[in-house]
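Chain A, query sequence.
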Amino acid sequence: MDLNRLINMIVRLFMRKGVNAGINFAANRGKDPKDMTPEERQQAKAARQNAKRARQAIKLGRKIGRL
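Chain A, predicted structure.
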């Protein structure tokens, strides 16, 4: 494995973690779950589930696009 592929792999790993952390931050609207009301926690959970479904749909679209 050459150095360029290794660097790209590491960069993608950190970018993926950063994007997922940002999505979760946006779903929580920047609040700590301890400070949320039960309704806000439920909305944040629903937002995270919707984001997960969106990521799955994008992944499926990429897979279909390769065919």
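The first helix runs from residue 3 to 27. The CA atoms of residues 51 and 57 lie 10 Å apart.
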